[in-house]
Amino acid sequence: MATIRLWFGRQNFCLLKKRSFLLLKLIAVVFAVLLFCEFLIYYVVIFRCNWPEVKTPAYDGKQETLDPVLKAMFLADTHLLGEVRGHWLDKLRREWQMERAFQTALWLLQPEVIFILGDIFDEGKWSSSQAWADDVKRFQKMFRHPQHVQLKVVAGNHDIGFHYQMNTYKIKRFEKVFNPERLFSWKGVNFVMVNSVALEGDSCNICSEAEAELIEISHKLNCSREEHRSSRCGDGPPLPASAPVLVQHFPLYRRSDANCSGEDAAPADERDIPFKERYDVLSREASQKIIFDLRELPWKRRLWLEHEPSLLRCFLLSREWTVPALLRLHLQIFQV
């Protein structure tokens, strides 16, 4: 009898040992899957990205000396959910993905300047002061960066509202957190950052200020090209004599995506769908005004950077790039 009990005891012990081993294996597999899918996958994907190669032209057998290269990363439409439409689980999932994508790209690619092309928040157009402060705190945690890396942001319609929703209070609240600097120069490259939401052209106070800022920037850029500066250029330090990069939220006017291309372009059956002015794109008048204000500049090319749901290259009057939402985990990198 004692022998039978001993045998059953050993059998139970072996069975318990096997079950414990299987449980440990299951826990290890689950942990490994979570580690890969929620952390390592970002390194695997972004590691395949690299900066565009800068080719140095040769003249008479000698390599031309190029200016220092600026590594710039562009994001758009982070749309941090707010207290009204954001469920805590949805916010947790989205913000973890965006934070990991951004921090991984920051560590692997080491950009010198980062631009976010508007719609940082989803409910900035109507959020209360407390909700705004909470959203800003979450943004600063997610998009933390070293002090030597510049972070530049332009306003989008979800940050300050469409033209009929925006007001001075919302704009000042946005600019208190994000530097309102409209002209930014780094390593010989001039970036013009425009509040495209204010380019409605109806002569409202906010729109008039935005148009006046654009004219002033155009004047400064023109002065940078003069060999002998005239008295109208003032006594301040001159800007680098380089082609400007226009950074804004709304794309310039175009009828549709028919003339646009790119690996992430709209499907063929959607490219001919007309865009709505002042909603999908800037109005024709506002786009013409931007081009007119900068037309005096003797540049051979201009590079326009804007937000849009897909990444496209649209060859209209200049070289134009639209940048997809970060929610799709796209990080666009340029060497300027």
UniProtKB/TrEMBL annotation:
<protein>
    <recommendedName>
        <fullName>Metallophosphoesterase 1</fullName>
    </recommendedName>
</protein>
<keyword id="KW-0813">Transport</keyword>
<keyword id="KW-0812">Transmembrane</keyword>
<keyword id="KW-0931">ER-Golgi transport</keyword>
<dbReference type="InterPro" id="IPR004843">
    <property type="entry name" value="Calcineurin-like_PHP"/>
</dbReference>
<feature type="domain" description="Calcineurin-like phosphoesterase">
    <location>
        <begin position="71"/>
        <end position="201"/>
    </location>
</feature>
<keyword id="KW-1133">Transmembrane helix</keyword>
<comment type="subunit">
    <text>Interacts with GPI-anchor proteins (via the GPI portion). Interacts with TMED10.</text>
</comment>
<keyword id="KW-0464">Manganese</keyword>
<keyword id="KW-0378">Hydrolase</keyword>
<comment type="similarity">
    <text>Belongs to the metallophosphoesterase superfamily. MPPE1 family.</text>
</comment>
<dbReference type="InterPro" id="IPR029052">
    <property type="entry name" value="Metallo-depent_PP-like"/>
</dbReference>
<dbReference type="InterPro" id="IPR033308">
    <property type="entry name" value="PGAP5/Cdc1/Ted1"/>
</dbReference>
<feature type="transmembrane region" description="Helical">
    <location>
        <begin position="21"/>
        <end position="45"/>
    </location>
</feature>
<dbReference type="Pfam" id="PF00149">
    <property type="entry name" value="Metallophos"/>
</dbReference>
<comment type="function">
    <text>Metallophosphoesterase that catalyzes the removal of a side-chain ethanolamine-phosphate (EtNP) from the second mannose of the GPI-anchor protein intermediate. Participates in the glycan remodeling steps of GPI-anchor maturation to allow an efficient transport of GPI-anchor proteins from the endoplasmic reticulum to the Golgi.</text>
</comment>
<keyword id="KW-0479">Metal-binding</keyword>
<keyword id="KW-0472">Membrane</keyword>
<keyword id="KW-0337">GPI-anchor biosynthesis</keyword>
